[in-house]
Amino acid sequence: MASEAEKIAEIDRSEHVSLGYNYREGKLVSKEVDWHVPRWTSDSKGSFNVDRRIQELRARVESGDIALGAFDGDRLAGYIVLHEKLTDEMAQLAELFVSQTYRKQGIATRLTSKLVELAIAGGPNNCTFRPFPHSLR
Fold it and tell me: 0.85 exceeded by the pTM?
């Protein structure tokens, strides 16, 4: 996927978040929020800058991480990244994004299932999932 990294610009990762989480005193505490998460663009700052996201994905793949894409024809509907060697015994789901128009169709589930297969085949005894808590709703 390194040569196809530019295709992540097709992902509309925008969403409205109404429930946020904080970790306090050993507990995950939810609270109502009103957050608008924008899509990635070239003129955005920080982690919302698509050019930065493309560079980060390329760097991940070049360092040995595994990226899988879900396509609708030539269009990238979603992608997932496995950091296979978080430790000698643990892999990590590093990124998971599904474009807004493709959500609620099982794409994230299928990508995650394939990623778990790869993690198990790679040998780690544990797979750590670190999505943003609001994506667990």
Answer: no
